[in-house]
Amino acid sequence: MLKIKKIIKENDNKKLTVYLLLRLLVIISMVLQFFKGNYSNVLLCILTLILFLIPSFINHKLKIELPSLLEIIIYLFIFSSEILGEIQNFYGIIPQWDTILHTINGFLCGAIGFSLIDILNRNDQVHINLTPVFVALVSFCFSMTIGVLWEFFEYGMDSIFRMDMQKDRIVKEISSVKLNENKENVTVKVDNIEYTILYTKDGNFIIDGGYLDIGIKDTMKDLIVNFIGAFVFSIIGYLYITNRDGYKFAENFIPRRRKN
For residue 219, what pLDDT band results from cuts at 50, 70 and 90? Predict the structure, then answer.
């Protein structure tokens, strides 16, 4: 019993260290962005500090206990997405940065969806007893739903506020019926595109290397890697339900109801 308490205390200390360190880095970044005059980034830092409070809110207000490892991953995910990704432009510097974060998001949302059903399954006051396959399926569907809603959000921000959350990509080939001179529903394939030119009233833009794809490839890539993350955790969740002692490591990612 003492050994278990010691492990819990050590994990809590690590969680607190990560939390305080990341908050300090966000505050430093906020001050620097303020003096640079990037006030939109200052607001982004403030949003990050608010998002850091979500695990504490879930723990104290909703009486849901987040495992220390899961909480640390959430802090790192928020920091990586907002500060490193947006302010430090890791999305542009590291091509796979967005892919990594969306994969992790699919995994985390799968864990959250799994815990919601598993808590009900093990609650004596709720008359529900779902099979492991169904719990895993709900976990997967929950994660994919969150992923789709996020893509809706990105599309809305791009459409309304003219942002570029759905990152544009350069492609070498396209297939489109719009290029069919006879107006038939037959695709015209264009390969080995070297460059495209955008003609506007304010000037022309030359896109070297291919054709500018507006968001669709980024959106589909995000959903595919979200699918992978959700699927991986669904398998882990299924194995955990069927053999909780054998796959005890899964508890590091599964929120649970607080007993006290």
Answer: very high
249 token code pair: 């490591």
Q: Which residues contact 126 (CB under 8 A, 6 or more apart)?
A: 120
pLDDT at position 9, please?
54
Rounded to the nearest 5 degrees, what angle is found at the Cα of 137, between the Cα atoms of 136 and 138?
A: 90
Measured distance CA(248)–CA(239) in Å, rounded: 10
At position 84, the amino acid (one-letter code) is L
- Give the residue-averaged pLDDT of 88-106: 94
pLDDT digits (tens, 9 = 90+) for 121-151: 777 666 667 789 999 999 999 999 999 999 9
Q: What is the dihedral of CA 52, 55, 60, 64, to 10 degrees?
A: 170
DSSP tag of 164 = -
Predicted local distance difference test score (pLDDT) of residue 251? 92
Long-range contacts of 77-85, Cβ-Cβ distance < 8 Å, separation of 24 or more: 77/101, 77/104, 77/105, 77/108, 78/48, 78/51, 78/52, 79/22, 79/25, 79/26, 79/48, 82/44, 82/45, 82/47, 82/48, 82/51, 83/25, 83/26, 83/29, 83/44, 83/45, 83/48
